[in-house]
Structures are given as C-alpha cells and as structure tokens.
Amino acid sequence: MQFLEEISSEGLEIARNITKEGPICDHCLGRQFAQISHGLSNEQRGMILKAALRASGEALGEGTCWVCNGLFEHLEYWISTALEKLTEYEFNSFLVGTKVSGLLLQNEELLWEIAGALYAEPLKAELNREVGKRLEHETGKRVEFETPDIVVILNLWTETVELQIKPVFIYGRYLKLTRGISQTRWFCRECGGKGCERCNFTGMMYPESVEGLISGPLLEEFNGEDLVLHGCGREDIDARMLGSGRPFVVEIKEPKRRQVDLQRAAEQVNEANRGKVEVRELQYVGREMVAKLKDAQMDKLYRVEVEFRSPVRETDLKKALDRLNGALIEQQTPTRVLHRRADLVRNRNVYSVQLVSFDGKQAALQLTCRSNAFFKELISGDEGRTRPSLSALLGTPAEVRVLDVLDVKVGIHGEDAADREDVC
Ligand SMILES: [Zn+2]
Ligand SMILES: [Zn+2]
C-alpha cells in the first residue's frame, strides 16, 4: 500500500498514539495525514491506518469520535439542510464555509499537540470540501472560490446553515421627468425615519425618490430583500434629469432570482412610474462598476432659468455670459452644502454658457460644466464666495429658478469625458 509506505513506521506510530486518546473516526484520523498521498480521501486514509494498526494487534476503541464529536457521521444533516435552504434561490456557483465551534477547535488543538500538525489539514477544510462535493453532485452547480453566487455557511455553534447571497448589480440610466423627487431614499432629519409631524409620518424627507420608485418592480422581478441605488453623481431634488439620463448601478440584495429578462424589468419599472421616472439600457454588471461610477468624470449639460432682481440689458447680459464662457471660476464651498462638506476654495471649469431666451427679467441658459461645479452659485455668487458670478458681473442679484439636467456624459478613470461618449 503506497500510502503506508509514504507515512512510514514513524507515521504509523503517531496514528497509534492518537487512537490511544479515545475513539476517533476515520475522517479525523486520516485528516492528520492529509498532505500524504494524493488521490485518497481522509476517510480512506483513516481506514487504511486503522486496518494496519489492527493487523499489528492494536485494539481500537469504539464509539463517538472524540475529535469531531460525530460530525462526520452526520454529514447528511448538513447536506440536506443546505439543500433545503438552497432550493429557494437561483444560483450558478457556490462555496461552503464553516464556523467551527469552540469545543471542536479545542479538540483539534489537543490532537495537534499529540500528533503534530505537520501533515494535517484543519477540520473545517475537510468539512467544506466534503459537503461541497456532495452539493455539487446534488445541485449540478459548481464550487467557485472567487465570487460565488452563494456562500453556504455551516454554523457548528448553532447547528444551522446560513446563506450569504451575492447581490445582483445592474447598470442603467434613469430619467427624472418631474421635480421634487430625490435620487435616493432620504430619511427625515427630525425623526430619522420613525415618522413624525414634520415628515407627515412617512419617515422620509421627500415622499418620492428614484430609488424608492424603481425598487418595487425590480424587487418583485428579482424576488430580492432590498435595493440600493448608486448614482453617477446626483441632480438636485428640484431638477429634472432629461436627455439620455444619468448612469446608475442598482444593487439588489439577497435576490432569489438572478436571471431576469432586463428589458421586461425595465418595462415593469417604467409602467409603474409613468411621467415620473424612466429607466433605460439595463444590463448586468459586476460589483466593480459601482466604484467606476463613483470615480467617473462627468460633463453635464444644464438648462437653467434665471431671474434677475432688477431688469438687465441684453447687451450687458451677453457680455457677462461671454466672460463666463470657458471661464475658470474660484468657488468657496457653497453655503447650502457647508453642513456636509469642508470649507475650501476650489477651481471649477465652466465649459460653455449659451443664452437660449431672454425677456428683460428672466433668461434661459444652457451650461456645460464638470460634474462638481455648483453652478447655482455661478449665477447667484453665493455672497461673493463664487467668483466671478453672473450676479456680480451684472451688478444685480440673480437666482436660478428652474433647473434641468439635459445630459450627462461620462468618462471613467480620468479619461476626458468631453472626448468620450458614454463609456460606462
Ligand atoms: Zn471525527
Ligand atoms: Zn419625521
């Protein structure tokens, strides 16, 4: 027998010492020699060793294994419990993990003190592998170590099976067709979401959000628990998002289904939110897309309606807009976001400003700028914190009244968005 030759008489002596501690199962005995002879299971190694010991006249104790406490005799419990939980979920790949109880860890340490851990593998490695093999066989799905759809956790403390479900990530673009909708759910500042008079007992700062509006239909399609929207930047609540829409990734948590027809899903979302929110171009992506979106450089095209406190002359307005066209502006953190951002002076690029219409007290403009330009302040001047500004150039207060994002162009990882059409 090749295995016996490889472990030699020295190894057999170690095995003999182990069996003197008390009854031990084939798995636990064989596992102490797991590094020797490939192509055998630990159980087979244990059987060979026990046969050799018996042949040399050793009397081996019978009864429950003192190391694993009978764990390997009860593999069927773990396999059937895992299978039962898994039937609810759609998945292609999985991985088995074990939370080993303190008692078994102590037993294993004790065993390694006697036997040395030179050729051994940990108990949980064997359990993971053996249960994994069986689950592969029963489900026809494969074990994957990198990014499994489901991690099956055998919790030996509680004797239960827990599942960790990988979220589904979907990229798309959204349009916001009416004002007053926030991008993500925004809990009430007064009550933190419990419900109070300020929020009309909704728990929300704003009754509707893009995230909230798309979550119902999408969670139903994927049979998921929760949904998080990661936007590629965000527009103000009072701004519409038009044109080709804003890129986003939704993360669907604990989906029971993960192979949904996305065109159908988009139709469900759009059907439920007519005139409010529309999604387009849905496609499956990996988790890494969330970080890419957050790092993305964006150029945005805005349409703003501006109101002047006192009438201005068209020639003055055109002169002021010429000054802002292509300008590098100096902007100290706007007063309205000071509560959540550091007070710094930043340089911002305004790529272009165009006059669309004008009637003496009001003007409609189209602006293109980098995502992080706060252009409400470009108009108002924010009490001198943004320089230059349309207010300062005209010598009369000017305010943005209405605002729409007409387009978002995205470049990823520092690529110049102006040269790139929609890389994300
Ligand atoms: Zn055992
Ligand atoms: Zn509230």
Order of helices and strands: HHHHEHHEEEEHEEHEHEHEEEHEHE
| Rg from alpha-carbon coordinates | 33 Å
Give helix % range: 25-40%
Number of domain units:
3
| Bound small molecules, deduplicated | zinc ion
Could you say which overall geometry the principal axes of the C-alpha atoms support?
elongated
> Spans of 5+ residues with little confidence (pLDDT < 50)?
412-424
| Terminal CA distance | 60 Å
Class by SSE composition: alpha+beta
Mean pLDDT: 91
Major sheet description: 10 strands, mixed
What can you tell me about this protein's structure?
There is one protein chain. The chain has 424 residues and is α+β, with helices and mostly antiparallel strands. The chain folds into three domains: 2-165, no CATH class; 171-295, Alpha-Beta Plaits (2-Layer Sandwich), CATH 3.30.70; 297-419, 2-Layer Sandwich (Alpha-Beta Plaits), CATH 3.30.70.3190. Helix content is 32%, strand content 27%. The protein is built from twelve helices and 14 strands. The strands form two sheets. Strands 5, 6, 7, 8, 9, 10, 11, 12, 13 and 14 form a ten-stranded mixed beta sheet that branches. A four-stranded mixed beta sheet has the order 2-1-3-4. Helix 4 crosses helix 6 (123-139) and helix 7 crosses helix 8. It is elongated and about 110 Å long. The two termini are 60 Å apart. Mean pLDDT is 91; it is low at 412-424. The chain binds zinc ion (2 copies). One zinc ion (ZN) binds at residues 24-25, 27-28, 65, 67-68, 72.
